[in-house]
Amino acid sequence: MIYLTGDVHFSNLNNHEQKIIGSEIDSAEKYLNILKKYKLACTLFVNGISLQKEPDKIKELLKYNVELGGHTYDNFGKMNLLKSYFYRKKWGSIYGSNHYQKKDITKTKKAFEEFGLKMTSWRTHAFGSNDLTFNLLKELDVKYVSDLVGDIKPFYKEVMHMPINIPIDQNTIAYGMLKPENRNPFASCTKCRIKAEEWFDILKKRVIENEKNKIPSIILIHPATMMVLDNFKLFEEICKFLSKYKSFKISEFKL
Length: 255
Hints:
This protein is α/β, with parallel strands linked by helices. The chain has one domain (2-252): Glycoside hydrolase/deacetylase (TIM Barrel), CATH 3.20.20.370.
């Protein structure tokens, strides 16, 4: 059982990938077009602001076999190192206080409803959730969350948790030539980075092992990352491999 997911951010991140490709929604459509070719379902977690600022592009995504889940309203707005440090220190989460979280989740949910969609599933930007988040999601009738990372089976607590149990592309792959400095544990998201081909081998082995043990594979592969990496060449190979298995959207999971 394959649960393929991707995160699609609004342009306010202004990060390395967005500077190269522009709108992440454009890369998401190319991503979904490849999934269609291999008859794979997918859940994309998108910012609420994207539904308001780029509605025509979002409508194009809905032509595919995709579920859209919430991914905060706008990546926490103007987040910086000082603010994130303060949030972690005071509230134990980059997502901040109960008041801020409730306001942000409610705003995201409203953007979905105004667009004509029900927000059933959720992933916090940067996995910045805590127990407050999960209680708030339950209050606001969000039933599935995919925020935890590691060898954890899906479980119910406040909401249905779908932990990401395959190494994440963005956290694992080295962009371009692998240099010694990429191994620097203090470099942004570069700890233990490996070549894309090595990561794909790990993904394959983990999926095969999960299938053997009847464990669902919850995978996070970012459309923007795959586009920047090699214009979806590797992603096509991944989809070819995953097409051997049944795929589902996050909200289709049942214990």
